[in-house]
Amino acid sequence: MFDSPEDARSTTIKRLTFLLLAAVSLAVLGLRYRLKSAPAIHIKTLAATTFKSRATQPDSDFARHVEELRKKLPSAEFTIVIQPPFVVVGDESEAVVKAHSEHTVKWAVDRLKQDYFAKDPKEILDIWLFKDSASYERNALALFGEKPTTPYGYYSSSHKALIMNISTGGGTLVHEIVHPFVEANFPDCPPWLNEGLGSLYEQSGEVNGHIHGYTNWRLPGLQAAIKAGKVPSFKDLMSLGSRAFYDDDKGTNYGQSRYLCYYLQQRGLLVRYYREFVNHQKDDPSGYKTLVRLLAVRDMTAFKRRWEKFVLGLQQGYDVTVR
User: Fold this and answer.
1) Are 204 and 177 within one domain?
2) Could you give the count of Cα atoms lying within 13 Å of 312 in the half-sphere of its Cβ?
3) In the prediction, which pLDDT does 54 show?
């Protein structure tokens, strides 16, 4: 018995549909089998390779950077240590350079990122640690064409480098580490906060797992300026542009900025202040309105008098919590 053309077409379509469904089923079963039997390590490696951050693991960018760096080393005495997001270069022994890298650079970076900074600097930066003042001055001039204006160290954005006389201690190094992170995370940060945070942590330690600034050598100069009535209002300080803050500084800008940050830290407000300021920077470019709101004060002249009394009561090496 023969089917009609319509029946034949219908039968053919049914058979083709059945075969197609069978083929798809077999393909799915095969795929499941391959996924089950494939080593999981391949998937993890792919994810790590695709999504890894320079901050978590040195990669080919660092390797290339180090090779280029080797070409301009002043001598074979230098040791290079990769400590993301930096490369640390020093002319002391390998053990000493590694110790600076681990106990100062990594320690500071981890804790600064914990409280303040979500982003690493966009480019790999070098930290040059020169063993004494002679090496510092000689190599800064030879490598960067400039004579240092400070005996301690500085950050050069144009050279993508932190240049340090490490014999003066690690405090300036921590201070300068703050600046490229501020540059990456808060590019419109006013100079008072950039230097206030940097100078706060040039004398620092750890309290409850967080970085903590202590009183330091800037205190006596600020106390003398307060007694002489030479400290400007906070509104004036916070509105200063870079030239006025750095070039026209009468000696109080760094100290006042540091001890305003210290005051906020001692009240448990500094990290909150930084985050709120970042979030409101378009409406409050100096951070003054955010400060007034966070302090919940109406009379900032009266607050300045309280702050000055607080600062005059401080001593180097002692912490005072604000009630």
Assistant:
1) no
2) 13
3) 36
